[in-house]
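All the exercises in this workshop are built on plain-text protein records. Sequence and backbone structure share a record, each on its own labelled line. The question running through the whole workshop is how a given chain folds. The record below serves as our worked example for the rest of this section.
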Amino acid sequence: MKAVITLAGYGTRFLPASKAIPKEMIPIAGIPLIQYHVESLVASGITDIILVVRDGGEIIRRHFSPAPELEQYLEGTGKYLLLEEVRRLSRLANLVFVRQPETLPYGNASPALAARPWLTPGEPFYYMFGDDIIVADVPVPKQLLQAYEQYHPAAVLATQRVSDEETRLYGCMEFKPGTTNVLARIVEKPEPGKAPSNWVQIGHFVFSWEVFEVLDTLEPGKGGELWMADAVDRLARRSTVIAQPIEGLWLAAGDPLHHLKASIQVALRRDDMRDALKEYLRNLPL
């Protein structure tokens, strides 16, 4: 199976930093966000990965490419652990960088159309947004792939339960009568008290090729953007779409404050950072 990672946004919430650096390259606890995504796919057995980009894709490409001068310096100075890490990145996966054409509308579904020529026709594929990070013992892609193998639906999408106060922030799921995981529709950012459930989509999917039958006729929605939630909603009306609960800590990282919170959460799980960070936080004059 191949995977598609959507990196074609403008990163406006990270301006001015994202003017020169793709937001997916801004590090969380020292590691670029995009690296977490690629490593989770590789750990799930997916090594053919399509990254759909706009400007700044060359910076991401360099991160995963060999760096002879840097490698020579690290070897010459005896920094062998860093040398191995740099070399590991260039061997991690088979990456294809696809520039999203300006002819496609803005939106988180357009990268699927941009990536289609590089996918295997008729075969399912993994699709994920590039904004968030999920810390899990079993990588999220592996959890979704297991559900896809079990049900063989038109699509599987990742979901987690949120509080009543948070439902207004997400696409909330309504399930078909008599089921707890078969999607009927998605209600995007419902008004308080109007959510059909507390289960929300979290930007990870496995799609059969049927999704392109929907995308080819899908019109831009709210804000003139092409939304994957709209495509999934329409797909659920004609076929079986499974909502798979995900085990793991879901950390939004799409804006500077949430990115900072995610960095703290991830750092607190690292043996080389945990103790020093705890001491620092305890001594802050809050």
